[in-house]
């Protein structure tokens, strides 16, 4: 038989088996409501069988992939990545539909391997009643009323970090800003979760957490010695440390206002308390959500301020006025002062927009959903693309230039979502902003810094950060 006829036969067998498989797929079998029957799938390409467009996504800067798709297909398009059919949404209305107004039709979705590492009871894997209750606890421990008491501790953590980076005379130590910001953010996370924690426990948690963090972005498998399996072991040890802390707390009947205190005091209407595992999963979840996010944004802020000396001067002038009012920094910063730093605050907002470190989020449709005439089939992933929205020139003119003054006028509602939107939006946003304001105050009033090397670029760790974590040198003024 000729090669071409063989090829034809194979193609027919392949296509017919695809057809048979598809006809068994729940998406093809299910009877649809009339509105769903007339709806069509969004435009877009599903790529190659099995791999879909995964290679296109990961062989370049993912944001280029999203931007080129949006240019070609518009604000809603389908694709297929990491084995999942997806609908991507690049308009504020569509993001609001998924995250706020129709949030009940979309559930959070994470790979099983990641869920295992953080802990399946962490709030961001859930929706409904359990999520609602836990979220209330987390929100209470991170509310402005609670975190205002943390100002002195955040200040001393920021000052001691900066002092440790600043080179003594004749010593040219180069700091990996992102790595150091991670340490700073971790310490603040510990403060929010445990209050003043014995340094021995803090070091044990840090050591094991670092191993979990390394494993989180590695290939999941249970082969001994791999980063993922080491991470699972470290995660177990963290559970033991937290259980020990919980026993101590209970023994001493401590009533604290931190997250651990809120979770230990919790009882539902039937008198049911949270289990140690539920508490541990949520502690790890919060530490996880707090660390890399805050560290990445702070790293970008240092870069943006360094690259715009005029802006840096304006921030310095604002902060020096506070420093002078506090008798050259002899008096501590007050909560009220942190609420009155308009220029610095706009720098933070613009950094959040420009870097859009959480470029998108994932949900999964729990039933067939029709949005603007397009069908989102049950089980498909849905991805609101925050970065595309933040970089849309119709919403943020000249989106690629760093211009904090654009925030002198508040952005249109639901167009600026660095902390997400709706039921899963970030409960730590006030704490994150407070950390950044306090850090910047001490940085610009007492220190100066220079970037090392002039390589430009972005690395994904997994959030976007300047290349090599932004190597820099620091000096005390
Ligand atoms: C600049 C820093 C931060 C950024 C940009 C950020 C961003 C976000 C975003 C976009 C979400 C929503 C994700 C989604 O809808 O799927 C989120 C959720 C969350 N964030 Fe943050 N976050 C930051 C800092 C923090 C901090 C400091 C904490 C805690 C101390 C925290 C705790 C959480 C938690 C627990 C959730 C899950 C909420 C839920 O599922 O109900 N985040 N964050």
TrEMBL record:
Task: Quickly give the catalysed reaction.
Answer: 2-cis-(+)-abscisate + reduced [NADPH--hemoprotein reductase] + O2 = (+)-8'-hydroxyabscisate + oxidized [NADPH--hemoprotein reductase] + H2O + H(+)
Provide the species name. Answer: Acacia crassicarpa (northern wattle)
The yes or no answer to whether the keyword Heme is present is yes
Metabolic or biological pathway, per its Swiss-Prot or TrEMBL entry: Plant hormone degradation; abscisic acid degradation
Give its E.C. classification number.
1.14.14.137
- What topology does it adopt in the membrane? Single-pass membrane protein
Q: Which PANTHER family match?
A: ABSCISIC ACID 8'-HYDROXYLASE 4-LIKE, CYTOCHROME P450 26
| Cofactor(s) needed | heme
Cite the source lineage: Eukaryota, Viridiplantae, Streptophyta, Embryophyta, Tracheophyta
Q: What is the name of the protein in this document? A: (+)-abscisic acid 8'-hydroxylase
């Amino acid at each position: 038989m000729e090669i071409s006829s063989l090829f034809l036969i194979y193609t027919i067998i392949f296509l017919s088996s695809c057809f048979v498989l598809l006809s068994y797929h729940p998406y093809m079998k299910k009877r649809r409501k009339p509105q769903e029957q007339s709806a069509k799938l969004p435009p877009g390409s599903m790529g190659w069988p099995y791999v879909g467009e995964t290679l296109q996504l990961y062989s370049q800067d993912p944001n280029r992939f999203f931007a080129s798709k949006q240019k070609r297909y518009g604000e809603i398009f389908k694709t297929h990545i990491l084995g999942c059919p997806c609908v991507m949404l690049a308009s504020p209305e569509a993001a609001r539909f998924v995250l706020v107004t129709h949030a009940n039709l979309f559930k959070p979705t994470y790979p099983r391997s990641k869920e295992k590492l953080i802990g399946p009871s962490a709030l961001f894997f859930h929706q409904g009643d359990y999520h609602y209750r836990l979220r209330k606890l987390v929100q209470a421990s991170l509310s402005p009323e609670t975190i205002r008491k943390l100002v002195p501790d955040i200040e001393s953590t920021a000052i001691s970090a900066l002092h440790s980076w600043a080179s003594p005379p004749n010593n040219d130590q180069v700091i990996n800003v992102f790595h150091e910001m991670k340490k700073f953010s971790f310490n603040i996370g510990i403060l929010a979760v445990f209050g003043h924690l014995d340094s021995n426990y803090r070091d044990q948690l840090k050591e094991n957490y670092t191993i979990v963090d390394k494993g989180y972005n590695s290939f999941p498998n249970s082969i001994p010695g791999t980063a993922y399996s080491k991470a699972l072991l470290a995660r177990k040890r963290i559970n033991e440390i937290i259980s020990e802390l919980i026993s101590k707390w209970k023994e001493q009947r401590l009533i604290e206002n931190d997250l651990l205190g809120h979770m230990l005091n919790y009882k539902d209407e039937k008198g049911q308390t949270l289990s140690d595992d539920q508490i541990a999963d949520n502690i790890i979840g919060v530490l996880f959500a707090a660390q890399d996010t805050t560290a990445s944004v702070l790293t970008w802020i240092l870069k943006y301020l360094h690259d715009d000396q005029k802006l840096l001067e304006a921030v310095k002038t604002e902060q020096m006025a506070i420093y002078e009012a506090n008798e050259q920094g002899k008096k501590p910063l007050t909560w009220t002062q942190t609420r009155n730093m308009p220029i610095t605050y706009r720098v933070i907002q613009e950094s959040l927009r420009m870097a859009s470190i959480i470029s998108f989020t994932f949900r999964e449709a729990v039933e067939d959903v029709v949005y603007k005439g397009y069908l989102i089939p049950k089980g498909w992933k849905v991805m609101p693309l925050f970065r595309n929205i933040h970089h849309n020139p119709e919403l943020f003119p000249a989106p690629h230039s760093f211009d904090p003054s654009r925030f002198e006028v508040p952005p249109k509602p639901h167009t600026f979502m660095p902390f997400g939107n709706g039921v899963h939006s970030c409960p730590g946003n006030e704490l994150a902003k407070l950390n950044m304001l306090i850090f910047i105050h001490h940085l610009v009033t007492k220190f100066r810094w220079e970037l090392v090397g002039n390589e430009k670029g972005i690395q994904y760790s997994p959030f976007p950060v300047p290349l090599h974590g932004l190597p820099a040198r620091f000096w005390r003024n």
